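In this section we walk through a basic example: taking a raw amino acid sequence and producing a predicted 3D structure, encoded as discrete structure tokens. The instruction is simple. Fold the sequence below.
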Amino acid sequence: MRLLPVLLLACLLSGCAAMRSYDREVYGTLDQAAGGNVDAAIRMLEASNRTSKDLLYYLERGMLERLAERYPDSQKSWVAANQRIQTELGIREAMGNAASYVVGDQLRAYEGHDYEKVMLLTYMALNQLALGDWDNARVAIKQTHELEAVIAEQRAKQVAAVEEQARKKGSRTSFKELNGYPVESIDNPAVNALRNSYQSALSHYLAGFVYESLGEGSLSAPGYRLANELQPNQPLLEEALRGLDQRLLAATRTEDDGMSDVLFIIGSGSAPAILSRQFRVPVFVQGRMVFAAMSVPVMAPTAFMPPPTRLTVGDRSLSVTPLTNIDLMARRSLKDEMPSIMLRASVRAATNATAQYQSQRALSDGGERSALIGLAGLVVSTGAALLEHADDRTWRTLPSEISIARARVPRGAHTITLSTPDGQRNARVDVRGRYAVVDLRLLRHRIYVHAPNVSRAQGSEKREALK
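The resulting token sequence is shown next.
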């Protein structure tokens, strides 16, 4: 009996690994990537994941390999990530999820946020396009549509299950009940205007473009149409649908005018961080009010990096259209997940409050046995409060915002200039084929270029363009 407090303390201390702060952990990785040191960023990611490699590791690794233009390596990481998403959790993961009702959500196997799952397939398609493989890009596009349907069904079931569990346990599910929670960070008109947290106009516009390039008008039109619904009143999106039949007809002509229909995709910044914030909440145990710790995730303020306003190809200036705001999708995702997060946090708070109450009663009863039981209860409740940490894991190397431009340009080498608030950023690409995708990523002062004909032979010129 005398060893009980020591054993309990040892068990609690062994759980300190669960208190990993992902925001602090990934900051250096992002900093290195923003400075153009992608290999150093990968080494930092590896150092943070020596003992185990979860879904989030493969998501981040895949994006970093993509920045380095190592597309096969990027695909390898993302295939591993997609397999983890598609595979149902086994016994070990189920035990981890159950533990989150006792210790914290960071012990749950990371399953990825809904928008991350869809963006993964979208970027896998972009990798294939960077390799010039339109057929396999089509496969990833098709998987995106299928995944969205699965997510919609799962979320409907989850909402019903959370409501039923909350009713049975008498637990709170609304984050608005937490005094001091920054409600407006995830509950505001811009967030609420989104249809859901996982459908992006980028994914569906890209689907329309890929299907169009393959001559599949019946599949292209729904992609463009849904992109218009998700991001209404954008002339560029409206024109894609309105002029589809005419473009498809022109593509069937035998003569080649030497022009390419180019989709320019511009990703800016990085996805927002999630922070763990602890609140003290009242819990009634046998008619007595006890305050317990409850940790829930909070979206960090946006590190705002305005997307470029213009894109110039040679001497032609194009307007840039905002298409997908991942920052807003992440906030909508957290808002939608909060009922289940609050349910688990409430159960843990009630358990902690009960341990506090029982330990206080045992200590007040007197006697060695009661004192030991009381001390053990205090160790449990104190340790639980220390380990109470919200899950702050999220795919940070995703861009914050994605915009597009589109134009028919002569095939051949072109200098692309982006006008950003920090000045102009230049890149050099060689456009070929009737259709082409050029993906540009702005990460602080750095621009990364993804296109199938960015010549490795022009390495010095390219490095200069990336400065």
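Looking at the output, two observations stand out. Residues 1-17, 89-99, 455-467 have pLDDT under 50 and may be disordered. The radius of gyration is 26 Å. In the next section we compare this with other chains.
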